[in-house]
Amino acid sequence: MTHSDSEVVLRTVGLSKKYGRLLALDNLNLEVRRGQVYGFLGPNGSGKTTAIGLMLGVLRPNAGHVELFGLDCRQHLATVLKRTGAIIETPAFYPHLAGRDNLRVFGLLSGEVTRKMIDETLDFVGLGQRGKDKVRTYSLGMKQRLGLAVSLLRDPELVVLDEPTNGLDPAGMREFRGLIKELGRVGKTVFVSSHLLSEVEQMCDHVGIVKGGKMITQGSVSALLHREDGLEIKVTAPDRAVGVLRGIDWVRAIRRHNDHIEIDAPVSRAAELSEALANERIYLAELRPRATSLEEFFLEVTGEGDTA
Ligand SMILES: Nc1ncnc2c1ncn2[C@@H]1O[C@H](COP(=O)(O)OP(=O)(O)O)[C@@H](O)[C@H]1O
Ligand SMILES: [Mg+2]
């Protein structure tokens, strides 16, 4: 088993799924590498749950296949699932049992799980203090975190979560996002679906955008947000700056908003740009790659707004 950063942990190859005549997934190709926190972003009905069901061997594809850890998921289902933790729906807990006793039950079902593993997992999801309380006293957010604990019990390499923050209040969502980021920090590979752009932007380092069962685009969140061809500056003398910028042949377009100027130009020429302005005694108060919010980007690529 290799642990290089570039190892592909999860891959779908030409994955398609039909329900009757409805093509719910259409030739989906995606790739998640070890250590990534990958957001699978798409509006409701775009095929996210279907894709996850195929990844976990719950559904059978009409075409294509899923590889987990380089193994075909249908041929090696038991092996790959041992290395994977997942929540598709909030698991049904025993409400009259304590949280930690529920973990014991799920731990027994899934093989050798020690008391220490249970306590560590409870601490990780922030239920260390509430582990002895009955689950019927838990809030939805706590139940959802207990669900995450179940998926983490056997210390999986890959964690697959289908819209885990659905139905949580803002505080519960924030806690859960924090946990997902923490999973990334401790080296887990995380695949998490969401229809909320801002959420993916906050918790993921990579994103795949899906619409109508098709992958629209995927890549690192920062690369998708910071396009390589735009700069934004704030200068001391915007009128004169516009004049100077017009004289530079690799500046393709300029848009001025008071003292802010948006420039279509390669980010790699930022230093030259600042030098050209400084030569005319115009000084930069700000210079940055032009950021596109994921929301704006999502709208652009899917032709839809936030479906929250
Ligand atoms: N069991 C099913 N039978 C028929 N159609 C389904 C079934 N499950 C999902 N669909 C349809 O497939 C499409 C994708 O659904 P789904 O994978 O649940 O999307 P998402 O999780 O992104 O909301 C939707 O149009 C949905 O109505
Ligand atoms: Mg779904």
Structural description of this entry:
With 308 residues, the chain is α/β, with parallel strands linked by helices. It has two domains: 8-223, Rossmann fold (3-Layer(aba) Sandwich); 224-292, YebC, transcriptional regulation domain (Alpha-Beta Plaits). Helix content is 34%, strand content 30%. The chain has helices at 48-55, 77-82, 99-109, 115-124, 140-152, 170-185, 197-203, 221-225, 238-246, 270-279, 294-302; strands at residues 8-19, 22-33, 37-41, 63-68, 71-72, 84-87, 158-162, 189-194, 206-211, 214-220, 226-235, 253-257, 260-264, 284-291. The strands form three sheets. The chain has a six-stranded mixed beta sheet with strand order 6-7-8-3-9-10, sandwiched between helices. A four-stranded antiparallel beta sheet has the order 2-1-4-5, covered by helices on one side. A four-stranded antiparallel beta sheet has the order 12-13-11-14. Helix 3 (99-109) packs across helix 4. The longest helix is centred in the middle third of the chain and has 16 residues, at 170-185. The protein is elongated, with a radius of gyration of 24 Å. The model has no long low-confidence stretch (mean pLDDT 89). The protein binds adenosine-5'-diphosphate and magnesium ion (MG).
